[in-house]
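User: Quick one: structure for sequence A, then sequence B.

Assistant: Sequence A:
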Amino acid sequence: MSRRSSPPTELDLELAELPEALRWREWMGRVEAAIFASPAPVPRETLAQLVGAACRLDDLLADIDAELRARPYEIVRVAGGWQFRTRPRHAAALRSIEGSKDAGAPEFTKLEMIALSAIAYLQPVTRAELSRFAGREVSRDVIGRLKSCGVIDAGPRAPAPGAPIAWVTTKRFLETFALDSLRDLPDLEALERGGLTRSEPNDDVDAALDDMLGVDGGEEDDVVPEAPEFDEL
């Protein structure tokens, strides 16, 4: 005879029987546990289902973050939700461990970073348009490397001869660079005034792009990891 599963116990959200300080700590524990257990960013709406009506969720999250200041990880808002992330200064150590879960942003070359930044701002954008933006050729290998890292994907075909693929960023892009949305990117007009768009390569601008997304300069341009080619004209 099969055993019936017990119905889930209704969660007491208000915790009215607890003193205020203990109630706050319990809410903190629930929210922290939910974020820790999830492999993807947890939306605010989900976290709100774990606490009472009197809970100020932003203050609660700020208190969790404050308690983690001495820890090698932090709680950040990315891709429309909240997630635990290893602090950037530990990324190199994690990359040295095979199969590490969270090693921070991949080590992109300068040209890959320029192409990725251009896609983030100009999407959907073709490879030919990226090459004009960068002032140098953006090869299929560069596009393939970015796609293999999951930070870009094929968008609509462009209304141009040959109908080339136009590229767009992904949710993984937001997660990788700890962005809540594309609105968190620096103002494009300000970057243009600083020389972001140009016809010739500029090392100062390349460095600014590295800083913009919080990564180092990566490998030199002529060291491009192998990547599969895609059907893109």
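Sequence B:
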Amino acid sequence: MLRTRTGATVSSTDPSLIEMEDLLVKYVRNECNPEEKQWVISWLQNPDNEAYLRGLMRRQWNNPCVTAVDSPDWQRMWAGISEQTKHLPDEPEPPLYRTVWQRVIRIIIWVMCIITLGFSVRLLRQAQLPADAIYQAGDKPYKRVPLPDKSTVILKKNSSVRVSSDWSGPNRQIWLNGEAVVLVAKQPLSFRLQIHTGNHVVTETEEGRVYVNRKEESTQVIVEQGKANFILQDEGLLGKIKAYELKQGEMAEYNEKSTQLIRRHSNLSAYSFWPKAN
């Protein structure tokens, strides 16, 4: 509670306009105690109170006969208060490095939220897909397996292939064990067929004919038509990827145990293990 010059008490939260004017007069005449002075300055610094003070100015202008004893010069008072508050210390700004780090952290949080949302949508979508299809040649000399994109996998005896049920994305995937020829139909722009063999070994192509032989810990790939990328990927989600382009007639042999990669030209006729593979 604050007490005015006339003896009235003023609430620090909700004073009446008359009491406020009384306090302002005391402030101009330098009759306020430190508590009242601080309260008046805080009140004057509030932009919401500017309209009230301007009203006092208009009333003074409309009644020029009012003496300075009865009421102070509100216009001069307002100019003085504006000049006084202009030199008040501003709130200290945070250091530049702190502001930059706050922005970086916010960006990281947004990126993580987007990645999390993407993974959640992908997992939900995969959970709704049917199981991958598995085909085996068994004791037959070879078995033809048609793929959803009109490509064909020709399996040799005792070989198998697993075909992904998700064929809508740019990476259309199959997993091969054994020996096969993959006839890859022309893919849409930026799409590719990925042939997984072994751990972290992928052969991808947009169109062509690829011979693949996966036995034990060794993978052999020959491009009979078109071209392909032979990809080695380290373990982990963000493992380092090495890609080697194979053109028609080129071979890549990779041993997972020794991590040795051999690339050379090959005799295509030596790997045509059935006459009707076309």
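The helical segments are 17-28, 34-44, 50-62, 74-86, 96-128. The longest helix spans residues 96-128.

User: Thanks, that's what I needed.
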